[in-house]
Amino acid sequence: MSELRRLIGSTGGICSTADLAQAGFTERGIAVAVNRGEIERLHRGVYCDPRIATELKQAARVGGRLTCVSAAHLHGLRVLGTPPKLHVEVASNAARLRHPGTARPLTLPSPDVRVHWEPDAQAEGAMVSLSRCLEHVMGCLPPVEALCVLDSARERVPWRPERPQLLEETAFQALLARLSVSARRVAERSITGSQSVGETVARERLTAAGVPVRAQMPLIGGHFADILIGDRLVFEVDGEGPHTEPGAFDRDRARWAWLKAVGYAHLSFSHRQVIERWDEVFDAVRMHLRRGDHLWSTANPPPWATQDVATARRGTRGAVRRVAEAS
Fold first, then answer.
1. Closest C-alpha among 151, 52, 44, 135 to residue 87
2. Fewest CB atoms less than 10 Å from the CB: which of 16, 184, 276, 307?
3. Any idea what the Cα angle at residue 142 is, between residues 194 and 196, rounded to 5°?
4. Residue range 23-73, pLDDT digits in tens
5. The architecture CATH gives domain 197-305
6. How far, in Å, are 50, 124, 180, 243 from residue 60 at the CA level?
7. d(CA 114, CA 182)
8. pTM for the complete prediction?
């Protein structure tokens, strides 16, 4: 790696001619590096490491830093969909903004760029910090889309201790303090237990419809429900998050069989169904609610009413053994 590329890498992948000159690089040396493909010229006076993400290059070409939903996935966060516009943070007094593709003068409002004007805009790097990114997300996106991102940042579940919590509780509280009243109310609906976009979307849509839900609820046998409706209706979203990990297909079905055996009702939908065909999903939920499948009752008693978990497990294993012997 050349010293010039190393310097640009140390500044977040973006550097100005003035920065390079201050570090001792001459105009000729910069031109040679560009010709060799070691660095890339974005526009007059601004260079980058050619290996950085395209969105980072585009934001720098505009004259700012990548932010909001455009930066979320580069921070390792989940997003509901591909943003139609490039979100860029620029200083409040910035002038001569450029189009991200052509570097020609940018006319605002633009169909291609959403500008986030900030009096204290970040001065270095190609992308804003995680906290600034989330601040823009909560103030810019519709509530459900914003919560998908924020839930991802706050995710912390006990059975996946290896996954770091990107936004810890103290940072979350600091974020709440910076938000507007309306954005804070939305942010306070976020949880640490959501493991996928589908789970967040389903939780929000069910809650909005008045359905009583609890996320990542512990169940009998040491299992957890993505979403528990009422007392006993387990709602799960497949096709994203932990349900796509190696071995998840078999583990999920073993868990479902056990939960049904001890008395839980179960509904499972694909990520696409939840996102794109919600009416069908909610119709199924509504039919279960009308039948009272979400509540323990005389017809559907909780397993602890007649036997403890160990007995239920032995009974299930005995039934499996008898079926196997009969066959």
1. 135
2. 276
3. 20
4. 888 889 889 889 988 889 998 889 999 999 999 999 999 999 999 999 999
5. 3-Layer(aba) Sandwich (3.40)
6. 13, 11, 28, 37
7. 21
8. 0.84
